[in-house]
Amino acid sequence: MKELNDIETIIIRSLDKTATEQELAVLHGWLKASAENKTHFYQIKDTWDAAGILSPDTANAWKQLNKQVDANKKLPRWIIETIKIAAVAVLVAVATYTVFKIPQKPPVEPAMAKVVVPNGSQSTVILADGTTVRLNSGSELVYPSQFNSDVRKVELTGEGYFKVKHNTAHPFIVSAGEIDVKVLGTEFNVMAYPDLERIETTLVEGSVALNKRGTANGHIVLKPGEKAVFENNELVVAPADIELETTWTQKGFYFQSTSFEELVSRLERWYDVDIIINDDDFVDITFTGKFRNKESIWQVLDVIKMTTPIDYKTKEGKIYITLINQ
Amino acid sequence: MQETKQIQTKKEFEQFFNTHHADLVRYAYKFVQRTDVASDIVQEAFVKLWEGRRHILANISLKAYLYKVVYNLSLNHIEQLKLRARHHDSIYTDLMEMEMDYYKDEKSLLQEERLESIRSMLNELPKGCYEVIDLSRFQGLKNKEIAQKLDVPVRTIETRIYRCISKLKELVKRAV
Q1: Which chain A positions have a beta carbon within 8 Å of B142's beta carbon?
Q2: Portion 177-206 of A in contact with B at CB < 8 A
């Protein structure tokens, strides 16, 4: 039989789990090089996986599952309600979600669930209608466990990237602060962090209508590539830099002429750290740059240092950034 | 096999569990590379299915739902790993993430209804293939151990297994 070439050797070793770290790095680079490489490798691996033995103990697993399911039944009523809510929506954030039932709702309303994504993580939620929402660090989404009214309505605090399942009969509404974003089926980003004092909606695909809550008409319709900014009680449409607004979903950040204050609050959420600055010093300072989220907070700060006259130090677990007087 | 539309009774649930459990664990293992984590993920997915059985829309296939849940839970596990490894680049989590990304739109053979007939294709492989595949994939031996057992160089075993799996891949591709 013809000998294997280098990459074939690495592939078979990676399947055998005997590849070295260097070999895996070569494999990684090779996979990234082309879609054909990926297809080739993943089809081989999939065949390997499908031919595999790994025979899980189904009988025992069933016993365990049965016990778990029965135990849930004997729990107090409110816990069962909570678990039910948890079960209807597919939550991705195993460690990060908290789910509860919102009280004071009339009983006819479907139960509401809430996902909280803490600083330092991200999470994806799939709603009962198949809509997916990617939630950025420090965000919350409240949504009904089932959509059984005329509209599909969810509430967002923080930032989320929505891929809404098309359904003309049941419009999808995202409530963010004072703004309602109404859609039929589309992809868009909503940023509504309470500390930012503005709400941005960027449309990637499809069409959405925005409305300030409490105003019946005078809504704004966005076209793909546009964004709507609600600031100082005004809704303004502007061209959007899609990459800038959505880099976070690929686990990176992209800042363009971002105020230093906003940069700091983004880094705090992303890395789950406390950063102290003297706001007055940084009033006129903006930052432009791109990170891939491979960097540690220290590497990010060092990059910022290269273009902005700052210095930083840590004290009692907090990061202090100061402006260097020139 | 018929697509299951709804699960009402414990009996139906058990049947559904028995049909899909093993392949779901293999599917999760593909991504998370740990049997304990894979089993937990599948367990959690089935709990969600049972607790939510009255709410899951009747027009989606329960099997597709379950695979989606397992995919999402696996993705989340890897994101957690990645978060923990944030300070040092980890080639392992990068590769895992890349594979997850590939299966965002692709189906695995493990989701195939005809998986059993695919497994039987092993018998159609050239002679000598069955021996190494059996030792590697069914008896769980490492390539090095197979080489010792058959008293040939590891390179030879690596080459044989690679060629046999490639061959199987082509057979499956033609059949699906």
Answers
A1: 16-18
A2: none
CA distances from B90 to A24, A95, B148 (A): 10, 21, 32
Q: How far is B52 from chain A (nearest CA, A)?
A: 5
Nearest residue to B161 via CA among A197, A103, A11, A72:
A11
Instruction: List, for residues A44-59, the tens digit of each pLDDT value.
Output: 999 998 887 667 788 8
Task: Determine contact, residues A200/A169, Cβ cutoff 8 Å.
Answer: no
The number of helices, as runs of H, and strands, as runs of E, in chain B is 8, 0
Residues of chain B within CATH 1.10.10.10 domain(s) are 117-175
Cβ <8 Å between B72 and A86: no
Class of domain B117-175: mainly alpha
Residue linked to tokens 């678990």? A83
pLDDT value at A11 more than 90: yes
- Contact status, residue A179 vs residue A160, Cβ threshold 8 Å: no
Q: Does B62 touch chain A (CB under 8 A)?
A: no
CB B124 within 8 A of CB B171: yes
Q: What is the DSSP letter of A279?
A: G
Closest CA to A113 of A140, A90, A145, A158: A145
* ipTM (interface predicted TM): 0.91
Token pair, residue A131, equals 């809509």
Q: B147 pLDDT exceeds 90?
A: yes
Q: Is the separation of the CB atoms in A120 and A272 below 8 Å?
A: yes
Give the residue among A296, A292, A307 at the shortest CA–CA distance from A257: A307
Rg, chain A, Cα only: 24
- Residue of chain B minimizing CA distance to A272: B83
What pLDDT sits at residue B146? 93
CB A140 within 8 A of CB A154: no
DSSP class of residue A248? Answer: G
CB contact at 8 A, B97 and B85: no
What would the two tokens of residue A186 be?
A: 């589309």
Q: Where residue B24 falls among pLDDT bands split at 50, 70, 90?
A: very high
Q: Pick from A189-198, B80-89, B108-117 the range whose average pLDDT is largest.
A: A189-198
Q: Which domains are assigned to chain A?
A: 6-50 (no CATH), 89-242 (2.60.120.1440), 252-323 (3.55.50.30)
Architecture of the domain delimited by B10-108:
Orthogonal Bundle (1.10)
Q: Where does chain A show beta strands of DSSP type E?
A: 90-91, 112-117, 123-126, 132-135, 139-144, 152-163, 172-176, 179-183, 187-192, 198-205, 208-212, 220-222, 226-231, 234-239, 253-259, 274-276, 286-291, 310-315, 318-323
